[in-house]
Amino acid sequence: MIKLDNIVKIYGINTEKKRALDGVSLEIADGELVSIIGPSGSGKSTLLNIIGCMDEATEGKYFLDNTEITSLSKSKIEDIRKDKIGFVFQHFALMDYYTAYENIELPLLIKNVKRANRKKMVNEQLEAMGIADVKNNIPAKMSGGQRQRVAIARALISGCSVLLADEPTGALDQATGREVLSLLKDINKRGTTVIIVTHDMNIAAQTDRVIEICDGKIVNNG
Ligand SMILES: Nc1ncnc2c1ncn2[C@@H]1O[C@H](COP(=O)(O)OP(=O)(O)OP(=O)(O)O)[C@@H](O)[C@H]1O
Ligand SMILES: [Mg+2]
Q: Which H or E element spans position 178?
């Protein structure tokens, strides 16, 4: 369960201050499939980063599964992020010189998962995402859709309960974008909360709930 209570995010200092989020209150239940839409600069990525424990709110309270994130130390927040949150980005954010296999394996290395277990888990993800055939390719030797599948596999491998995707189809052609969306929908059906930031109304229309944000405020709660 995600619960934001009057979240404000201010970037910068003094006269350069920018109120990126201006009193956002929001609840997202476990297992929801949600999209967040709004104009460029409206605060979508800021909101996603706060939900994903990648950035801190300036004011307000954020609860994830009844734990008040905004009251915790940075290292505790990082532990929770690694445990519960998966992130997918528009431009994939893969390691250029790592193969698909190695990219997906990374979170398990960080968690000190044993080699034999890693191998089993990575191979299962490669199969589940339909990318076993590019297992030994580096990102430059993959299609955009394959790269995003690797990124999704990497996000899922540590068993996150919330998957956050910031414009996951923004760098893909329409057909590939539809495939990636359908993959995200499958992941949601298996129980993961999925939140997608998008500019694409066709994508938003396929989610169960569309949250609209404008000038750092929620103008439609879905
Ligand atoms: N690190 C930062 N420092 C200063 N200002 C920032 C920073 N990050 C974002 N902003 C500002 O905060 C506002 C919200 O930015 P945000 O990236 O959340 O918008 P967005 O809705 O994701 O936009 P886009 O659709 O273009 O990705 C914008 O005015 C932006 O310029
Ligand atoms: Mg953004």
A: helix 174-189
Measuring from each residue's beta carbon to the nearest atom of ligand 1, which residues come in under 6 Å? 11-12, 18, 20, 38, 40-46
How does the average pLDDT of the chain come out, rounded? Answer: 96
Centroid of ligand 1 to alpha carbon of 130 (angstroms): 34
pLDDT at 13: 82
Q: Which domains does the chain have, with CATH numbers?
A: 2-220 (3.40.50.300)
d(CA 3, CA 146): 33
Cβ atoms 139, 99 nearer than 8 A: no
Residue nearest to atom 28 of ligand 1 (CA): 41
Q: If you measure from the C-alpha of residue 20 to the centroid of ligand 1, how many angstroms do you get, rounded to a whole number?
A: 6
Across the range 196-218, mean pLDDT stands at 96
Closest CA to 52 of 108, 118, 2: 2
pTM: 0.96
Query: pLDDT tens digits, residue range 109-132?
Result: 988 999 999 999 999 999 999 999
**Considering only CA atoms, which of 53, 42, 39, 4 is closest in space to residue 24?**
4
Write the single-letter amino acid at 81.
R
Pocket test for ligand 1, best of 45, 91, 166, 203 (most atoms within 8 A of CB): 45
